[in-house]
Design brief:
The chain is an alpha/beta fold. The strands form 2 sheets. Strands 1, 2, 3, 4, 5, 6 and 14 form a 7-stranded mixed sheet that branches.
Length: 305
């Protein structure tokens, strides 16, 4: 494991998107990147599906064996609000990362270049403007009516001065072998864009940080009932939601399972932290899941990349 810099300054963005509004979400991301750059952040992290927002509570007219025309119209609207890798808005984000001289991790709904399928994806832009995209392996629950299973970009990692970093999206972290697939690549920073504002999730992320002996960046968002457009065809879905749909809870956990920053609830915040990058190595003295605490002669993970 090669660590070139002992400190990593992270800016973790907990913010509210405007659902279905690609232009608003991209502009807000660009503004936060500029704000984080002013704080000299070297790694800037956004939540799951920040562009164009996570449509919590919507079913897009799906029921078992049935679809509806209003639901199809809303899904099509969401499709056109999504980003395609390399399109004009995507490249604006890439340029912003380059101008900020920072790595930028951002969740987005991804249009496929060929098919009409959407993917729940996360991109990590590098300071040189290049990028790496990860597609969510298995959309959770009713997410499967909106986004498809990943067909590529399963476990990419980005080489940084603080070691390899990678991401798993939301409940991908409940897929144990997916976690091991990242551990096997030597990650020192585990990025988790998600919408889990339940208390049990806090126990999960502390466990993963201890298990992987890595920093865990828990990137959640705010979603209010007012975050949704008022003119959706399936507005009855939104009418049933509470005023605060997702409370956030973004935080950073160290490799011992301790909070570097405490969870932030019910408000937007740019969370700044300096990570001691000696910890992912020093704490592996007693436990290294892919090194001396492994039994490759007994247990083996095969990953089809």
């Amino acid at each position: 494991m090669k660590i070139e810099k002992n400190l990593c300054r992270v800016a973790l963005v907990q913010a509210e998107p405007a659902l279905f509004d690609k232009a608003f979400c991209v502009d807000k991301a660009l503004d936060y990147i500029r704000r984080a750059a002013a704080e000299k952040a070297e790694l800037i992290v956004f939540p799951e599906l920040f562009v164009p927002g996570y449509p919590i509570g919507m079913n897009f007219g799906f029921s078992v064996g049935k679809r509806t025309a209003p639901g199809r119209a809303d899904w099509t609207r969401y499709y056109y609000a999504s980003l395609a890798e390399g399109d004009a808005d995507f490249l604006r984000l890439s340029r912003a990362a380059k101008e900020a001289k920072a790595y930028v991790s951002l969740g987005f709904s991804q249009q496929d270049e060929l098919s009409g399928t959407l993917y729940n994806s996360n991109v990590i832009f590098s300071p040189d403007g290049s990028w790496s995209v990860h597609r969510k392996l298995k959309p959770t629950g009713s997410e499967r009516v909106v986004w498809g299973d990943a067909n590529r970009d399963y476990f990419p990692v980005v080489q940084t001065p603080w070691g390899p970093i990678g991401s798993l999206i939301c409940w991908e972290s409940y897929m144990p072998l997916s976690r091991v697939a990242l551990y096997q690549k030597g990650i020192t920073i585990y990025i988790s864009p998600n919408t889990n504002d339940n208390p049990e999730w806090q126990a999960t992320i502390q466990h993963i940080a201890i298990e992987g002996k890595c920093y865990f960046i828990n990137a959640d968002m705010l979603v209010r009932k007012s975050s949704y457009p008022s003119d959706l065809e399936t507005s009855e879905d939104i009418s049933k939601l509470p005023d605060m749909v997702c409370r956030g809870g973004s935080c950073i956990i160290d490799p011992y399972g301790h909070y570097v920053t405490e969870p932030v609830w019910d408000r937007e915040e740019l969370i700044i932290a300096d990570l001691d990058m000696s910890l992912p190595i020093s704490c592996k003295m007693e436990h290294d899941a892919i090194g001396h605490y492994a039994r490759p002669d007994v247990l083996e993970l095969i990953v089809h990349e």
